What we know:
By secondary structure, chain A is of the alpha/beta class. Chain A has helices at about 35-45, 60-75, 90-100, 115-125, 130-135, 150, 155-160, 185-190, 200-215, 230-240, 250-255, 260-270, 290-300, 320-325, 340-345, 345-355, 365-370, 410-420, and strands at about 5-10, 20-25, 30-35, 55, 60, 80-85, 105-110, 125-130, 140-145, 175-180, 195, 220-225, 225, 245-250, 275-280, 305, 315, 335, 360, 375, 385-390, 395-400. In chain A, helix 3 (about 90-100) packs across helix 13.
Amino acid sequence: MSTVLEHVACPFCGCVCDDIAVEVDGGRVLKVKRACTSGQGVFMEYDPSPRLPRVRGAEVDWEVAVAEAAAILDASDSPLIYGLSSSASEAQRKAVALADRLGAVIDSTSSVCHGPTGLAMQAVGEPTCTLGEVRDRADVLVFWGCNPDQSHLRHLARYSANARGALTPNGRGDRTVYVVDVRETGTAKKADHFLQVAPGCDYEVLTTLRLLVQGGEPDVDVVGGIPVADLTELVERLKACRYGVFFMGMGLTMTAARQLNVAELFTLVAELNAFARCSVIPMRGHGNVTGADQVLTWTSGYPFAVSYARGYPQFSPGEFSAVDMLARRAADAALILASDPGAHFPRAAAAVLEEIPTIVLDHGPSVTAGHATVLFPTAAYGVDAAGTAYRMDNVPIPLSQVIETGRPTDEDILGRLIEAVRP
Amino acid sequence: MMLGIVGGRVYDPCNGRDGEVADVWVKDGRVVEAAAIDRERAEIVDAAGLVVMPGGVEIHSHLVGAKVNSGRKLRPEDHRGNERVRAGAFRSGVGGTVPTTYVSGYLYSEMGYTTIMEAATAPLVARHTHEELEDMPNLDKGVFITMGNNHFIMQAVSEGRPEMARDYVAWLLKATKGYAIKLVNPGGVENWKWGKNVSELDDPVIGYEGVTPRKIVETLAWVNEELGLPHVPHIHGINLGRSTSARTTVETMKTLAGRRAHYCHLQFLSYGEGPRHVNKGEAAAVAAAVNADPAMTVDVGQIVFGQATTMTSDGPLQYSLHQTAGGRWMNDDVESESGGGIVPITYKRTNPVNATMWRTGLEIFLLVEDPWRVFLTTDHPNGGRFTSYPQVIRLLMDRAYREETFAGIHARARKGALLPELEREYSLYDIAVITRAGPARALGLERKGHLGVGADADIAIYAEQDDKEAMFAKPRYVFKDGVLVARDGVLVAEVPGRTFYVAPPYDPAIEDEIRAYFERAYTVAYENYAVLAGDVAGAEPVACG
């Protein structure tokens, strides 16, 4: 006899859509409604079969695996804890507690994604809003260096370009949409205006926009590949809008000027508020990467790249960020929580992960899990474990347990490790 | 577990004790009659010569939640040099103006405080607030829920259906596990989403016909009475920081004349007409309005010279402050409910505006006659850190210290000041009122703020010193529920705390209306909005009515 669960939240991306219907029967997911293809995969491709932990590839029982993992952490002079962003905030809190206990370095996927966004926020602040304000109020949208059409598949329909809200009853018809990107993306094809910026030239375009907002006149006709006339039109539209919202992605954070790009954009948005209300929302990727920032901040004071080696939190991106810790061989053991750096990190860093002892908590197979010294096959939050995820706009959403598999959660295993390691 | 604190000078204003030598007996975390104790088995603390008070009760502080955490993230420079090293099982973290959660719990504990109220949370992110509270040990807690710009409430006001607002508020408090109704710049935050604000109590709120700040305040005061909430409406009025604030503050007080209400961080709302926002301190006029109406309570929001991080749900205020101060600005508009902003600031004694704010706060403390109606806050971290309370206590108790500090502030702030004429010095009894008994009574927390039989055994014990700042900075002993948590100002134990919330009854028919409203107004499902009691560690309902 199957049951349909309504209002289920999807843990896949920073949209955390919570209107999903999941039909389940006997611990299996039969059907998923309203989710995007990525979300479908989260539920439909989940392998709920019971699994035992492994130590160096061999199945062991949970106590043995916990003892083995604790021994690795106790023997380490400089452990690294990394990942976090596809886990729930309950587990993230335990991960930070373990880092504090061990004197470890802890970092999330933010450091290879929106880390520069956090640095920009620290430099200039951030005028932002929740996604409901975008849906209800925004009449001008600018997507800069992000492509939700491919990365956040329901974003345009549910929250932004096409969403119908209180002041935008006609959805797309009530909005003007701009895309700034280096190539004509799927999102750009759906926009009213596509401004094609030359690679690496975002910063000068942003600076020019600031100049135009202040009433200045550039002495060139084209900046970063974009005609100044087009930039002027954008600025005039923004200054006259009801509520403008920028979404920004890795086209700004991971190119050329990185955090300087983002700080320039945040400053532009702040300055536009002298004329019209404007906000900016970083297009965060993983389902709970925003939660990783939140949890690390309320426990350590800093959003990512935190070292507890001196007995108190220190923040140093480029030094305590995971790629740098590994590439420098500064970590002699690693605990990877719900992430696959073995597949995604630069080779120089990923190679070190294959050499040092690693403890991996993950609900499915991954390159990193394949090399794990100790592998804990934990439950997936939002599928067979309940928890909390923070949407890209920092709104916390409860994740449901839609099937029961009896697998331990990340929180359970991390809690046992905190008990098992030397005090 | 039994405990006796014997021979101390007990300052317990709720029970009329003004330093009389008495014993306090504790069993299973509560204060009990001496007869209930087997003295042979009780642990005895010799308090001879020491000052014994109930644990401190914080009525207004920004410690946890979305806005506070943004403030933490915004200010790495504020953390550095304020680190706290991990000690055994006690967590490390950072202090400064926006401490991490564990450090906040530890610092309050080490200062003799045992209960705190988080002063503002937007309902949509209440789940976040409760997550942080769970990571803030050694304190009992409660959360005020911002409602002064809530669309559902404003719609009810517009339609002339106050009972709809009442039922919704009851539902909302239960759904957020909140403790009290908070108003922040009623109507002004909604107008800020249109790039505007309100400046008078009868200004219109855009999009809500007939709705004004005055009507929002009146409706929520009525709702508060109807629901019989333990606390009163907790009001941050319009025009904060502006030269019209004293006038509109007094007008707001008169609007609610004779009705119970709390006006928070009053210092920030006590300025008179002049060329600058904070020009002419109007402590006398505002204090006179407070003195005239025994139904109201206030807290001061005292400025402390040094670093601060301003953070309020008052979005237009924070933008205005950003334009004045320059530098970093954080804003967050929250759908259908609220908003907020953050601007770091440094208060300097040599800055005439800052110095005027400093002396105006002290004038309010000294001009409000009834200590049961004026409470110690710095509106942490807006006016200064909560760890500055001992310094403020010294300013209130020690006129010579006050005069010495006053002599060092900017000359323009000294001009016209009432402070030099105010000879009043607070007594230890008065301090016990403004930091314990008074706030607990205003909050309706019957087991807090006193040491009578049945009280929670939250107790702070001090060695009296001439330097009252030193005295209150490091209590000799602090007990939470009868457990020794700090000794000589150093943490010795970590214990979990309660989260007090209210769940007044309401007509369940409102739920259908709210569910339908959610379809239109929110990007989060109705079913995923409510924080359940099981989601909140140590959740404890407090009776209404």
